[in-house]
Amino acid sequence: MEKLPKLPEFKAPDGYFEGLPDQILSKTKTNSNYSYLKWAAVFVFFASISIYLLLPNSESPSPAVALDENINLYIDSEYWTAEDILAMSEDPNELLDELFEEEMTIFEEFLEEENLSPQQQ
């Protein structure tokens, strides 16, 4: 600490802070003619209302479809695991059988597209 040079004391000029707000305000230009912004806001408001009213109303999905989409989101985000879903099911074996049938159908369709039979593998 002793090796650091001592700096002179800093002082603001007399009356500097009293006149500072007036100096700042005199340097800023005030443009109070914002009528074009008001008309632009009115135009945007009516244009958005018109677009909303003219667009066809999309029907909301059925509750079952919405539930399936929510479940898929939980699975895709890895929030739920396969064990969680099986634990929530009333009959896990039935759920596994349905999944197996669905996977087998997809697999058989793939084999048909590739002109293969399950025996040719």
UniProtKB/TrEMBL annotation:
Keywords, ordered alphabetically: Membrane, Transmembrane, Transmembrane helix
Membrane-spanning parts: 36-55
Keyword Transmembrane helix: yes
Superkingdom, taxonomy of origin: Bacteria
Protein name in UniProt: Anti-sigma factor
Organism: Algoriphagus marincola
